[in-house]
Amino acid sequence: MKCFIASVLSAVAFGLASIISPQVQAQDYPSKPITLIHGFATGGQTDLSVRRMAELLSKSLNTTVVVNARPGAAQTIAGAHLAQAPADGYTIGHFYQGAFSTTPLIQPINYKTEDLVPIIAWQMAPQMLVVRADSPWRTLSDLVAAAKSSPGIGFGHQGKGSVSFMAPTVFAGVAGISLTDVQFKGDSDLITSLLGGHIPLASLTEVAAAPLIESGRARALVTYAKQRTTASPGVPTFEQQGFAVPIQVPVGILFVPRGTPSPIAQRLRDTVKRLIEDPAVQAEFAKMKQALYYMDGPSVAKMIVAERSTYAPILKAAGLAR
pTM value? Predict the structure, then answer.
């Protein structure tokens, strides 16, 4: 009888805990270190910006935020790790939207993208197509002429489905040329191969390309943006060079596993929003040539759906959809 009563009391206690736990967890959150996962190489520009955000979050949340880089497979390795994590707010992830909008259209992934929920976009990362300074190509028209006489010119990117892959691939289709994609884990590997002469084209983030351009080691042929960016006003867009390429600007987004208590997700969102609205933080990231950007979670989800609808027929027509 005593055992039975103890079992009943235990079950009741568990039931009550399950009812009040989200609120209690939110009040106590965080009570231990948080792991922040991303899908890029250690030491690259994304890694550096995420690590700085982790430091700021650590101070704001009065805990330690540990960055766990899981590079490769167009962010899907990192996505799989986050999808398998407990939905308690102690494992969160930084991703660009291509991992959810276009990558699943191209390659199989071993988790459901809907199991990861966007809570806030906090960063924008414009990208560009870059060549070495000694390259004979100075415009996209130069590249098109070269590719028509010698099909299969290679370009480096960071994973099929990523913006670094999509922009040159869609451009090639629009221009009627053939480019060969070469996948890398991050900007640093891409830069090494570009400068070493192993690839003639590199699809890089603007922040990674800037030091190469400023030092005279490289130049950009095009920016993957709707208009010239503030950081690189001398680099023209696709449209300005006569090519109608749909624009997909990478947006850095914080995700949590589905089922994370809403009060915890809200605290994370509010903390990040407060940080990116801080003038001191904005000035710091500006020095890093990083653009801070805000979009709420529901708007991010709508953006992902819209991009998937835009690119699905393009990828199908190009023979890239799985």
Answer: 0.85
